[in-house]
Amino acid sequence: MVNDVEFAKIQVQVVERLKQGNECLDRMHKMMSIEDVERIMDETQEAIEYQKQIDELLGNTLTDEDETAVLAELEQITQQELQNLPDVPAASLPATTTEDVELPDVPTEDPGVKRKAPAPLLAS
What we know:
3 helices
């Protein structure tokens, strides 16, 4: 008898949750129609196809003729840039000193972190 009552309570809860779920779905359906979903899916498919076309264009390798033309253009640009560079200075650099520089010794111990000892607490 107790089992029957508990099972009936569970059944009532299940039915209430199904009712809530249906109400939620109804509200969602009012917010978005099938036409809206179809339009969004079509736009997404068009965007995917467009991206595939871009990927194909970028992914294709250059033909030998195209590569030769690109390399020739790169060489031309490089030569133009070289002509725009300033001239190399003709004067020699000043001589550097070869004197020994006195540096401090390297520490042999780990400096670590020095901490203060805790102050004793006063009894109140």
